[in-house]
Batch of 2 targets.
Target 1
Amino acid sequence: MYGGDEVSAIVIDLGSHTCKAGYAGEDAPKAVFPSVVGSIDQAGAVEDIKPERDSEPVPDSKNGIRSFDSEKTKSKRKLYVGSQALGYRRDHMEVISPIRDGVVVDWDVVDKIWDHAFRERLLIDPKEHPMLLAEPSSNVPQQRERAAELMFESYKVPALFLAKNAVLTSFASGRATSLVVDSGGGSTTVAAVHDGFVLQKAVSSSPIGGEFLSECMMKSLESKGIVLKPRYSFKRKEIRPGEFQSIDLDFPNTTESYRLYCQKLIASDIKECVCRAPDTAYDESAYANIPMTSYELPDGQTIEIGADRFKIPDILFNPSLVQTIPGMESFNDPAAYRGLPQMVIESINKCDVDIRRELFSSILLAGGTASMQQLKERLEKDLMEEAPQAARVKVLASGNATERRFSVWIGGSILASLGSFQQMWFSKAEYEEHGVSYIQRKCP
């Protein structure tokens, strides 16, 4: 038994946009920070700031002293994790994401992100806490084994459990069977959950997520001549009391990826502030003379946003709209991108006939992009038009935007603190006895 009141489990949900970490049993994650990191190749970069606290050598019982950064990464690149470290502009700093299409492509970075979550944010020793990790619904066995190996070998955790995102979202809303529509930063995934298990044949995903929409917003504004100036690229000077003038600063060594990262932050804030899903399919003529909404950019200029407020969210329902946005014409393969209602119907049709009815009546919305205003109402309306006559369509979404954003984490928090769950952990002893592949049996 690892649970109980003395030591609570740690729940980590590493998404494509943000990493959420915290204690099981709490109602929101304690640490939420971007899951991209800044990376500087040590060869060309000059060390301009003092080494971070977590890269000091640490005494280790086995081999005297070892350093956190493996020697290989130390000579090659320095990684900066967390919104504060990323907010500081450094020369030659590239912004890299360890996750592409829901699959981890860079384990060094993931290791660093976990390390930051444990030691900098939660201030715990991972040796003392069992870990519950959320994983994508269609995760492959190699990825799961790699995660388990890292947790047991690098962090020496006492026990581990890997749970599927869709299952955790289902638990967060107290259901064992549901259809989970998880629209996050990097992609949108629709997965059917039955009796607490993901039906693998009915998982479908699309690369349209929050970051894709932010990019559309950015390109659309640029086509109107509005430049999003990142915070580091100007300083404001007071010319008269209360009147400011912004002066451009020039940093020739700033990387393209860092500039884009900063611009996307602004675009994403604009999207969150002014966008809402239109009640009916977007139509250029109907929205041509819609009232404008103003938004103040960091450099003080105020911009007016009109039809884009509705057009950009509608890409979720009608991906072919992407082609009407200047600069995004390269996404011209409409077959690869499907709208939300089509993905939902497709997913349900791949399930057994006898559970389809139940799935139609419990469609759960989760993820940051799903917190958009009017999204639930619009999805319900579209599905009612496309679903079979007999089906009773019900789209459920927590009224609280925070709960929608963190539903995967909250489900993990509920699961890991249940008394009946405590015998499910994959323990260190089992790992040493059966090897890493045993995780496939312990965590279905």
Note: The chain has 15 helices and 23 strands.
Target 2
Amino acid sequence: MEAHAEVYAALKRALRAGASVRGTTSPNPPVGAVILDADGRVVGTGATQPPGGPHAEIVALREAGARATGGTAVVTLEPCNHTGRTGPCAQALIRAGVVGVYFLHRDPGAAEGGGAQTLRAAGVNVGQLELTPDTFGPDAELPIDGVAHWLRAVERQRPHVTVKFAQTLDGYTAAPDGTSQWITGPQARAAVHEDRAHRDAIIVGTGTALADNPSLTARFPDGSLREHQPRRVVIGTRSIDGAPQSGNLNRLGFVQYPDIDMALRELHAAGCRDVLVEGGAGLIQSFFQRGFVDAVQAYLAPLVLGGGRGVMAGPLGPSLGDAARFTPQRVCRFGPDILWELKRREEG
């Protein structure tokens, strides 16, 4: 089924709706949905609600009401086909009288998948869309695709892992004396806190916890807390419980795991699907060495130090062949700083 311009405009709107609820839906995916009426006008927009609440399609259909009849649904994940805590979205779309459904990602679940087949059997035209750097035009910013992170977690049976760091132009995250506040400016730091509010957990090593006394909270520029707060996670064997130099974490509460494998296993079991690793250099190196880094957020500041501390504690190997390779996804500017977002390049 051929997609027209209004379908791709609706897909961008659906992606933004899904991105707005990232961090609140796990272990369910942050899906976005848009309903177009028979004339191609947006009449309903929805996003997945917290577990137990309605799925994105249901929210959008409720907003559209009778205007959905004869219309088209555009969804970031194939409409589900099973009854769990909520009913099957494929059947809801059929009852609403939509005549077309476009979706971005196929649902991999044995019970949840198959919605497209159910829709086709009911006479609904179904098409699958593709998201590439040129989907919305060569100069358009690619919206965040939270469902892709969730799918990675389903595939790997562990949370999707993003490593975040801020560095100078010449690759240093701290000066020779260890100072690192602040490499980036206030606009970039505000973006970091907004992103934290869309993660299931923030992870640091014991060295960072003891040296920097981080809060690992998602805050507004005035210091007030955002509505959604990620889990605060520390990895390592050194105790930080009660240590005065980790007072913020002791005050706010945290969970500690001795190693990366246990952390990812336990976090996945607890429903976490999208986590952010913020340091330090030894922990980041370990994540790379284990092959657990799915994405990178690199904040680049217009500074040159000429020496200092790097992103990792050491090399991944002696040659370029040992490098971890990534594909650029988005480039954003925050004041004088640049954010480069990349995803892991799959072998082959």
Note: The chain is about 25% helix and 25% strand.
